[in-house]
Predict the 3D structure of the following.
Amino acid sequence: MSGPVWKKPDEVMKQMREKKRALQARFKHAATPTTCHSVTENDIPLDTSQSSVPRAVKRANPFKRSPAKRPKLLAVTAEDQQRFQSGSNNLFNKLNLPKTAVQDHNKEETVQLPAALSVFAAITPVCPKLDTFVVDWSLKTKARFTSKTPFTFSSTLKTSEEASGITGFVRCINSLSSEEWTTLDTSNNAQFHQGCLLWQYPWLPWLSLFPRDTRAPVTTPNASVHIGLDTGISGCLVADWCESFRSLFGLLRARQCPFFYVCTHQFNVLFRAAGIGGVAETHALMTPTTRGLREILRREDINFTMPLKKTNPQTENQEQSDTEGTTDDNDPVDEDEGDDEDDEWIQDIGLHSDLRSKLEAERLQDGGQGTSQGSYSDSLLLIEGVETQGLFNWLLNTKLCLSSTGPLAGIPPTLFSPIAFHHATLRPLKARQAMLRQDGESLYSVEVQGPILPHSIVSLMKLLQASDYTAILTVLPSSKPFSAFCNPMAATSASSAFGKESLSDCGLDRTSLDLFCSAQPVPTSSGPTNEIRFQNGSFYYEG
């Protein structure tokens, strides 16, 4: 029989007990020599096989320090400790004794460089202070109002408050200053809801038409089919948009509408009635513009100026000497020579008209090269008087306002207005109330989101003046130059009086009309206002 011999369980247990007794005996013999005397090399037997029980030997520590080196190391550490104590005492003595000398040295430096030190000494910049609110014409995407005291209104509305707010906005009635007796609700909630309304066209719930970003992804699954692929749907939208645009421009010329915005995927246009902003004629502001876009406007015989463009006096003198055959003195002549040569070359090779229009659209989207000096403010265009009619006709007929790619392909530009017009949709802003914790203080907050027009900001500011508050505004970057423009030739008192008389039926109350007709710009050097603080009856502006 091959393999191990079978053992019974009793034999296995007996063998384990014997091993256990042998192990215990070994431990007992190993403990006695270590306690009695130290083991040396001479005491270890050479023949270990003769001994029945092996003797335990204490192994030498390999990390044990040599006795010869120990005194020397102790002496070195004592010397280092003495040096450290003496050095620390000298250091503390130097820090404590010559305090007056350090202060005198700093005083001498401040006397030598007062300008540089004064810049760093200012902890907070001085904010412009005004007694009245100034209208900011840039479009806002978000506004947050915070106050230490509770607000007098709430975003949760009753049925009567919501109905009165809608009725007052649609009929352009201010229930607080109405001369006739009305049954409208005059509570602060109704006034708050009235200030958070605007008119918009087009309005497609599954697409974000403000801001118009053609690169934004489509989040809803039902919007996978682009409107631009269906010529029938796109044609109906464009036809209704043309009718809405004509309606708005007619209201503007009749002074029944104070202003409205046209937002495309490339540029924004602000149309303002005569008397608004201190300008005596109907005018329009356009930004951002590129060199190709300005060239197209010249071809359409639309005269414009660039009031915010920064040019050197030497270049201006050279441009004035070469102004024959040009319509804009602010654009350098050297910029257009290369474009003229390109156009002549395109005409010589005989390109199709559709291909040429695509090339012009690509030239408008050049971004860095198109805008003057790469900034929005320098490329702002001002069109006044009869030239505004030419701009209206060009926007009505051009295809550059329609995007050919992305989810917004085939959708006409977005129109925003405080006054009703044909095919317009009444849109409310999203309001939300919350509590904030800032610097250990509890603050009451109201946040408003959406395309916030100037009339909404003015209404909310007047409603919030019951207590001190702070407003933080998020500005649409492409509309920032609107706030920096100011007509230098306008007289504030004359323009305000003219605006009150000619725009009495534009839908704004008397107090708001005074603000919109004034030519006073936003008192910030960095552009539009990002923060406004109302404290002790005064407004503090921060860029």
In short: Residues 103 and 516 are 55 Å apart (CA to CA). Residues 197-214+227-311+332-428+490-507 form one domain. Confidence is low (pLDDT under 50) at residues 34-53, 98-124, 318-338, 364-374. DSSP finds 16 helices and 14 strands in the chain.
